[in-house]
Amino acid sequence: QVQLVESGGGLVQTGKSLRLSCAASGSIFSIRTMGWYRQAPGKQRELVAVISSVGSTKYADSVKGRFTISRTNVNRTVTLQMNSLNPEDTAVYYCAAAIIGRMELTARDYWGQGTQVTVSS
To answer: For residue 41, which phi and psi values (nearest 5 degrees)?
Structure first.
């Protein structure tokens, strides 16, 4: 059983910062790409940022220069530092990871339960 557990969401004012963390646990052989997605009310889920197992990153244009994704392979965690937040960043943020479980041959996608981020104007 593999789990992703997020933490760090909340309510902040425009211009402030938040830090989201996600820890993977369970029967894990290796973790490939890890990332963050978000879904605002009435909108489709969208990619925010992803990071490969060797540290390559990709960001949505809307968050470039404001958000930073990082990971620690030893602790199996991925973190999203969000600066200069604005109301358009309000959404439920989901952690995701491509994980190869023990006794498995291929990676599967796993998702966290989501954490609410609300930015007030």
So the answer is: -55, 130
